[in-house]
Write a sequence for this structure.
């Protein structure tokens, strides 16, 4: 009873103090420079990808449409958590008003849920491209792609609205210190002085629906892709099919592995410092590495990027091999690909068009 009265008499916290990553001055200065560079690099990389996809018709395909959405999401995602991280490193500790903390939580949950659904949509796109190639233009027509993208963004907003409203309705009476670099769900629930069973239930159900549901869709897609690759007549064809999935597999594997490890560990081995390190991986490192992975693994994106520097290189590299060899002289010497068919007939050669 005395404990209840003591809690009731405490004033509700109107702000939170974020301890950030480190309290040592020398370490803070180094980390500030590193994370600021990563933040600017992330914005530059993703802006470049979005601009390339919007300005080049060669990349106006479903796979690159989803990649553009992912790049937009990564820029928003890192911009939500990075300001408080940098503020905490420049002037630790960082004080955040209650309303700003809830707003950051809302955006973070929304973008995280959107990323889960978007990664599942990208896995479905690869499944249709490899397992049902003849139906790909119909199953992944523009209306379907826009529907999947809008569902990802709206689904994230809906889930975040439910979870954030539950967390915002709690009372925070005790110490208002969050041992984290942004307002996350677990640290806020640990500070609440009211009953959080209902909020934890809502959090658990939403995690099952969004996180586990999207993971199951992605896994089912790649299981079907694996079975289709094993049935392909040649190993070279199978490797070519898998190469189109490699970038997405790497990004998805890093994201889901870190998040699963972070939120599925038993309470008795929970470490706050480990939580912060893992949070850095999926809120800072992954958005910075994703564009590099996609650009290094994707031939079309590499070609378009080189074409921005060498305008005539992109059209030749993106052109299929058969199309580049569509005009050849079968006999004689000194006749190059791309010659006019009339000139080929005058030279005594044959002009064969293998593909357009």
């Amino acid at each position: 009873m005395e404990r209840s009265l003591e809690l009731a008499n405490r004033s509700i916290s109107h702000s939170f103090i974020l301890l950030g990553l480190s309290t040592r001055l020398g370490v803070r200065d180094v980390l500030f420079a590193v994370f600021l560079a990563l933040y600017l690099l992330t914005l530059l990389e993703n802006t470049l990808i979005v601009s390339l996809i919007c300005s080049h018709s060669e990349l106006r395909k479903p796979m690159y449409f989803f990649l553009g959405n992912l790049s937009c999401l990564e820029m928003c995602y890192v911009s939500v958590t990075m300001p408080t991280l940098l503020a905490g490193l420049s002037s630790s500790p960082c004080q955040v008003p209650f309303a700003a903390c809830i707003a950051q939580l809302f955006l973070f949950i929304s973008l995280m849920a959107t990323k889960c659904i978007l990664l599942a949509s990208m896995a479905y796109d690869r499944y249709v491209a490899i397992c049902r190639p003849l139906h790909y233009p119909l199953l992944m027509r523009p209306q379907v792609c826009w529907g999947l993208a809008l569902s990802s963004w709206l689904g994230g907003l809906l889930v975040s609205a439910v979870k954030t409203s539950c967390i915002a309705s709690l009372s925070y009476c005790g110490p208002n210190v969050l041992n984290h670099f942004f307002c996350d769900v677990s640290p806020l629930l640990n500070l609440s002085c009211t009953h959080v069973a209902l909020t934890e239930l809502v959090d658990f159900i939403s995690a099952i629906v969004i996180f586990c549901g999207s993971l199951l869709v992605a896994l089912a897609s790649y299981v079907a892709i694996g079975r289709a690759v094993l049935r392909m007549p040649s190993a070279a064809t199978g490797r070519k099919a898998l190469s189109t999935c490699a970038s997405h597999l790497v990004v998805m594997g890093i994201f889901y592995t870190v998040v699963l490890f972070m939120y599925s560990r038993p309470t008795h081995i929970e470490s706050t410092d480990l939580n912060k390190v893992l949070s850095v991986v999926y809120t800072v490192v992954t958005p910075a590495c994703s564009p590099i992975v996609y650009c290094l693994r994707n031939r079309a994106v590499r070609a378009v990027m080189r074409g921005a520097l060498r305008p005539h290189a992109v059209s030749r590299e993106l052109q299929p091999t058969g199309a580049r060899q569509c005009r050849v002289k079968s006999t004689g010497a000194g006749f190059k690909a791309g010659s006019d068919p009339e000139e080929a007939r005058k030279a005594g050669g044959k002009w064969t068009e293998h593909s357009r």
Observations:
- Confidence is low (pLDDT under 50) at residues 1-11, 320-356.
- The beta strands are 15-18, 94-97, 177-178.
- The longest strand covers residues 15-18.
- Residues 262 and 274 are 9 Å apart (CA to CA).
